[in-house]
From TrEMBL:
GO biological process terms held by the UniProt record: carbohydrate biosynthetic process
GO molecular function (one): N-acylneuraminate-9-phosphate synthase activity
Official protein name in the record: PseI/NeuA/B-like domain-containing protein
Species lineage: unclassified sequences, metagenomes, ecological metagenomes
Residue span, PseI/NeuA/B-like domain: 26-262
InterPro entries: Aldolase_TIM, PseI-like, PseI/NeuA/B-like_N
Length: 281
């Protein structure tokens, strides 16, 4: 039985550095590479972070506090309006992981096809309930989570009959390949009887391709214009050439899966006619 096409998500996240022109460049790169969707992140800064955290010293292009850095990276209605229009023009879906209830409400205005639960939000039960009530296909990342926590999230989505796909993930940035634990893809699939993708934070491409071989139904990787740019996620991201290679490798691997039935190809039949015979030696 042939497998479904792997759904490839290019995670732009906050790698746009608060500049929607950078975001547009990354969207175009993802589209041209053959990705199936691009993803962003949405936060209400004062809800997600405490005042004490926001007041901490942090040098960035926007100032010297955490608040200035967080606000500098955050897109609002103007920027997401540009993103929404640009994605429609290029005919590539976009989605975003909301980090709070207000952000999920904000995203509803764009009538997106997909939702995303980020690993840190997997235990935010109220957010899970709000997302599940929308009934949209939802990707659920499982980094930093126990099986019991994942079970609770699955129960929420099942209770609302909301279609979902778990994504195996290690939330370390960057993640050493030896910590990928890709065999957990099968564990999650067997335990929760659902599709399981892979959200990777490693440097390089091999681990993500291996995840496809092991049954991942979707792949999500952060992308960047240049890994040397400012930002905490840039170093764990793929540059344009790497993204093109990743998509190429994934499509080549999935094309190699076949039906699973043992068949003899036409070329093999020709070789068989030459090489098979009644043996008397």
């Amino acid at each position: 039985m042939s497998r479904q096409r792997i759904f490839i998500v290019a995670e732009i996240g906050i790698n746009h550095n608060g500049n929607y022109e950078y975001a547009k460049k990354l969207i175009k790169i993802a589209k041209e590479a053959g990705c199936d969707a691009v993803k962003f992140q949405k936060r209400t800064i004062d809800k997600v972070y405490t005042k004490a955290e926001l007041d901490k010293y942090r040098e960035s292009p926007w100032g010297t506090t955490n608040r200035q850095q967080k606000e500098g990276l955050e897109f609002g209605e103007k920027e997401y309006g540009v993103i929404n229009a640009y994605c429609k023009m290029l005919e590539i879906p976009w989605l975003a992981s909301a980090w709070d209830l207000g952000s999920q409400e904000f995203l509803k205005q764009y009538d997106l096809k997909y939702n995303k639960i980020s690993s840190p939000m997997l235990t935010h039960i109220k957010l899970l309930e709000v997302v599940a009530q929308e009934g949209k296909y939802t990707f659920i990342s499982t980094g930093m989570s126990t099986m019991e926590e994942i079970q609770r999230a699955v129960e929420v989505f099942n209770s609302y009959s909301c279609p979902f796909e778990l994504m195996h993930c290690n939330s370390q940035y960057p993640m050493p390949p030896e910590l990928a634990n890709l065999n957990c893809i099968k564990t999650l699939r067997d335990t929760f009887k659902c599709k399981v993708g892979y959200s990777g934070h490693e440097v390089g491409l091999i681990t993500s391709v291996a995840a496809v071989v092991l049954g991942a139904t979707s792949i999500e990787r952060h992308i960047t214009l240049n890994r040397s740019m400012y930002g905490s996620d840039q170093g764990s991201s793929i540059e344009p050439q790497g993204l093109r290679k990743l998509v190429e490798y994934i499509r080549e691997v999935e094309a190699s899966f076949g039906s699973g039935s043992k068949i003899i190809t036409e070329a093999e039949e020709q070789g068989k006619a030459k090489l098979r015979r009644e043996y008397d030696y």
